[in-house]
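Appendix C. Worked example: ABC-type quaternary amine transporter
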Amino acid sequence: MVKNGAIVIDKVQKIFAGQDQQAAQIEAVHQVSAQIKPGDFVAIIGPSGCGKSTLLRMLAGLDQPTSGTIAVDEQNVTGPSRERGLVFQDSTLYPWLNVEQNVSFGLKLAKQLSKRKDEVQEFIDLVGLKGFEKVYPNQLSGGMQQRVALARALINYPKVLLFDEPFGALDAFTRMRLHDQLIKIWQKHKITMVMVTHDVEEAVYLADHIFAMTPRPAILKDIVDVDLPHPRDRNGEEFIALKEKVLRILNFTGEEGNLNENK
Ligand SMILES: Nc1ncnc2c1ncn2[C@@H]1O[C@H](COP(=O)(O)OP(=O)(O)OP(=O)(O)O)[C@@H](O)[C@H]1O
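Step 2, the predicted output written as structure tokens:
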């Protein structure tokens, strides 16, 4: 199978209507243009409420730009597609289905389960959940639930995987383990990854390119390239210098409230 996953974002703007006629419109994303090459890992970082999730939702096809276009492999994104997998912070697993059933749910809907049953186990193994096939979501830790969500997205062989703070609710130790697992999966499957995160260290640890956004409306302020081999040393000089560079671009001075909602 030919895997691409090239993304072209062209002058994308998103304006939300106010709640009623008197309420002001909200411009969440302003004229963002960028190109993401197949197999790149991009992190989108910016202040809370700046418009990161809105941009990601438009990449997913869950929202449409007010103006501008987004294309994946030269096809305009007009709605959700199995070729663009999604993993959110609170990935909702079906509580009445066990791990195996959650991962295979999409295959069952597409009537492909009997043909591709072996792959269900393959992806459960890939995310490190061997032995947990019959366990239900309420018996899993948050990190394990996120890995089920990842396996569920991966089984569709997406060209692009979109993440909205997938590890935001996890403790630091679990998050670091999942970072390493995700990098291995990314290297094996060569999927284009786009991850919204608040965490500068997470961005520098995972991404090839970091899109630094301004406070709302999100404008692409700068792109920081991270040219360090994996696995990256979080305490390495270059790593720390890159973290500082991103923080400088985001104008983070260390003062309280600096990375919080701006308006
Ligand atoms: N459906 C909507 N209708 C109206 N306004 C919206 C809608 N979705 C988002 N917004 C507004 O757009 C702005 C950007 O929101 P968005 O969720 O994209 O920010 P974010 O950068 O992802 O924030 P955070 O990091 O806190 O999750 C916010 O002011 C938000 O209130």
